[in-house]
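Lab notes, practical 5.
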Amino acid sequence: MSGYARMRKIIEWLDTHHREQPSLAEMSSLARLKDSQFHREFVRWTGVTPKDFIQCLTLHSARERLSEGAAVLDAALDSGLSGPGRLHDLCVGLEAASPGEIKTGGAGLEIRWGIADTPFGSCLIAESPRGICHLTFVGGDDGDSVNSIAKEWPRAKLIPDDTRAASLLDAHFSRKKNGRAPAHLRAWVRGTDFQVRVWRALLAIPPGHLTTYR
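Output from the prediction step:
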C-alpha cells in the first residue's frame, strides 16, 4: 500500500472514529507502522500531527453541537471529551474563544469597529475585550462589511469607533523608523480548521522571507 493510500485510509477512519479520541498507538497499529514512523508519515502527508488533526475534528464536532443549542457539557461529551474543562481548553487554544462565547454568538460582548486606510486599501477592523475579532478589506459597500460582523457576532453590542480602528491598523501595518516590525497584536481568531492551519503556517515565516505553497 502506498503512503498516500495508507494516510487516506487513516483519515477516513478518523472521520468516523475521532469521538473515541484514538491514541497514536491505535492509529499506528491500523496503519501497520511503528509509532514514530506513522507520526512522521502523517505529518508528511497532512501537514499536521495526528493529535492536532484529531483536535480540529473534535472542535468542529463541538462547534456544530453548540450551534445546534446543545449545552456545553453535552457538546463536550458528544465530541468525545471528558468534560467542559477539556472543551474550554480546546476552544481557547484553537479559537481564543470559550465554548459559551461561541454558543451565544457573543452575547454580553462589546465589540468596537471602524474603517480606516491601510497600504492595501480601506479596512474594517473590530476588537473585543479578548483582542481583534474581525478584519476585512472593504472592496465595495461598507454596509456589507459591517453586516459580516453582525453575522459572526449576532448578539454582541457593536460600537462604531473609527479612531480606535485607525490606531489598531497603524500599529499593525506601519513600520518603525528603525525598520523593525510593529508590535504583536492579540487577535481573536475564528476560521475553518484548514484556515487556522494555514494561518499558523504563515505566522511561522520570518519577515522578508519566502516559502513554497507546500
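Observations recorded by the TA: The chain has a mean pLDDT of 84. The chain is about 50% helix and 15% strand.
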